[in-house]
Specification:
Layout lengths: L4 E7 L6 E7 L2 E5 L1 E4 L11 H6 L5 E4 H6 L3 H6 L3 H5 L5 E4 L2 H7 L1 E5 L4 E4 L6 E4 L1 H11 L3 E3 L11 H21 L7 E6 L5 H13 L4 E4 L8 H11 L9 E3 L5 H9 L4 E4 L1 H7 L2 E2 L6 E2 L19 H5 L2 H9 L3 H27 L3 H12 L5
Parallel strand pairs: 4-14, 5-6, 6-10, 10-11, 11-12, 12-13, 13-14
Antiparallel strand pairs: 1-2, 2-3, 7-8, 8-9, 15-16
Helix pairs in contact: 6-7, 7-8, 10-14, 11-14, 13-14, 14-15
The protein binds ligand 1UD.
The site of ligand 1UD has 21 residues, from strand 5 and helix 5.
Protein name: Queuine tRNA-ribosyltransferase
GO molecular function: metal ion binding; tRNA-guanosine(34) queuine transglycosylase activity
Catalytic activity: 7-aminomethyl-7-carbaguanine + guanosine(34) in tRNA = 7-aminomethyl-7-carbaguanosine(34) in tRNA + guanine
Length: 374
């Protein structure tokens, strides 16, 4: 008995896109969905109420960060992540594989696991597949990720093959170590780098382990977008239709559309919240750098097609002023807007799938946004 159930509502007639409902212990998620990232048990600058207000259905947190600070046992004693951060809807945690390789001074990768130094204080740590699952079980997210190696983009065939095969062995160990499959759904992660045959092997062997959902890992790590789309074309066909597919680390408007068209159901990315704090916002006519002088006396909203709190109440001139004055409210208003922009884009995508007009929607969106049609 798994913790989640994926319900395929409709297969798009124009593409590989699908409309679905993901039933979880903390509620139903409509897919395709964008998942705001709350790495340290908070989506930066947002309260849970504001996240609900903009339509967030599931948020992410991160095992590596929470293990290092405040510690998974403290979160467990607080009643788990939902209690600790006052979020009663679904949560997904990554296994920490990516952060160990990208954030810490990596010491050593062995069959057993990874030894690394904390990016916070340089202290030495060891995480194995079993340890990662133990941490995720303590945190209590509805969906948890297997411990994997996100193979670097520039890795050669030999390294990628060995890394992918180890990730498969680690996936087996994660499955065996998982204590609560009825409460927390463990997703397998497909690797294989930029190599067609390795992607096919990784997908087939991961699916044989029968996970309740599958992530496509090892992408959005510096490769050109057309390579990412090519890898999706190689990988998604081997994933079962009756299970959710999650493309890790992807969140620009064009990549969301291209991923949905290739059959991806779930996306996460720090981009919208990170660029918001630096004063770059999404609009239906492309990205806007609000600190630019041209907006100094622009009393219109960030985006006249946006329904968010920021666009209903504040002008570009005011938001630019806040950024120039380094006011905390600047980050909050820009974050509310950027997250609402992506969540609304996913609502529009879900509607387009329902109406069998997704490719037409994409063409119209790209034209307005200023993407050149490939
Ligand atoms: C950005 N591109 C990208 N991110 C990636 C992440 C981190 C997402 C996680 O890291 C945090 O955001 C940086 C978020 O907390 C997210 O949580 C799921 C990945 N995680 C794992 N375990 N395996 C992968 O192959 C992988 C690939 C990625 N590509």
């Amino acid at each position: 008995m798994s913790a989640i159930r994926y319900e395929l509502i409709k297969q798009c007639k124009q593409s590989g896109a699908r409309l679905g409902k993901l039933h979880t212990p903390h509620g139903i998620i409509e897919t395709p969905i964008f998942m705001p990232v709350g790495t340290q048990a908070t989506v930066k600058a947002m309260t849970p109420e504001e996240l609900k207000e903009i339509g967030a259905q599931i948020i992410l947190s991160n095992t590596y960060h929470l293990y290092l600070r405040p510690g998974e046992r403290l979160v467990e004693r607080a009643g788990g992540l939902h209690e600790f951060m006052n979020w009663d809807r679904p949560i997904l945690t990554d296994s920490g594989g990516f952060q160990v390789f990208s954030l810490s001074d990596l010491r050593n990768i062995t069959e057993e696991g990874v030894t690394f130094r904390s990016h916070l204080d340089g202290s030495k740590h060891f995480i194995s597949p079993e340890k990662a699952i133990e941490i995720e079980n303590a945190l209590g997210a509805d969906i948890i990720m297997a411990f994997d190696e996100c193979t670097p983009y520039e890795a050669d065939y030999e390294y990628t093959k060995n890394s992918m095969e180890r990730t498969l062995r680690w996936a087996e160990r994660c499955k065996s170590a998982h204590k609560k499959p009825d409460k927390q759904a463990l997703f397998g992660i497909v690797q294989g780098g930029m190599f067609k045959d390795l992607r096919e092997i990784s997908a087939k062997e991961t699916v044989k382990m029968d996970f309740p959902g599958y992530a496509v890992g090892g992408l959005s790590i510096g490769e050109p977008k057309d390579i990412m789309y090519q890898v999706l074309d190689w990988t998604v066909p081997f994933l079962p239709e009756n299970k959710p597919r999650y493309l890790m680390g992807v969140g620009s408007p064009d990549a969301l559309l291209e991923g949905v068209i290739r059959g991806i159901d779930m996306f996460d990315c720090v981009l919208p919240t990170r660029i918001a704090r630096n004063g770059t916002v999404f609009t239906s006519k492309g990205k806007v750098v609000i600190k630019n002088a041209e907006h100094a006396e622009d009393f219109s909203p960030l985006d006249d097609e946006c329904d968010c709190y920021t666009c209903k109440n504040y002008s570009r001139a005011y938001i630019r002023h806040l950024f120039k004055a380094k006011e905390i409210l600047a980050a909050r208003l820009a974050t509310i807007h950027n997250l609402r922009f992506l969540l609304k884009l996913m609502e529009d995508i879900r509607r387009a799938i329902m109406e069998d007009s997704l490719l037409d929607f994409k063409e119209e969106f790209f034209k307005k946004y200023g993407y050149t049609q490939d």
